[in-house]
Design a protein that fits this description.
Blueprint: H1 20-23, H2 32-45, H3 48-53, H4 64-71, E1 75-87, E2 94-105, E3 108-121, E4 124-132
Antiparallel strand pairs: 1-2, 2-3, 3-4
The protein binds zinc ion.
């Protein structure tokens, strides 16, 4: 991924002006939505370590790194839409982000509709957990 490429999180910005700040460790995400976007981008770029580091310790699994690496197989993320956000601003310590992520799994198109919860501790946002929403 070049810094001038469009950011995978579909923000409309270039990667160098968007999720690269967070994935590169230059700055922590300021809002829950930024963390959500950067985690999506980390999935597209298969940055498993970033995904583990930004997963809240409370809900992180022991073998998460291994499980993530396994889950990358055959998976191609093709787009992200943020549906709604609740709190999660710079001044908040909790937030929720509802999103739809599009993917192809071994060539078969699908979508993940989820409402994720985020907590901020010591100035850093973490993904806690999420509810899968049905697309009815
Ligand atoms: Zn981005």
């Amino acid at each position: 991924m070049k810094k001038t490429d469009p950011c995978p999180c579909c923000s409309g910005k270039s990667y160098g002006e968007c999720c690269n700040f967070f994935l590169g460790g230059a700055t922590p995400a300021l809002t829950a939505e930024q963390l959500m976007r950067s985690r999506y981008t980390a999935f597209t770029l298969e940055k498993a370590h970033y995904l583990v580091e930004t997963h809240h310790a409370q809900s992180r699994k022991q073998d998460e790194l291994k499980a993530l690496k396994k889950s990358f197989k055959g998976m191609m993320w093709t787009g992200l839409e943020i549906v709604a956000t609740q709190a999660g601003a710079e001044t908040d310590s909790e937030g929720e982000v509802e999103f739809v992520a599009h993917f192809k799994h071994f060539g078969k198109a699908g979508r993940l509709h989820e409402r994720s919860r985020f907590n901020k501790e010591k100035g850093q946002w973490f993904y806690v957990d999420g509810d899968i929403l049905s697309d009815a």
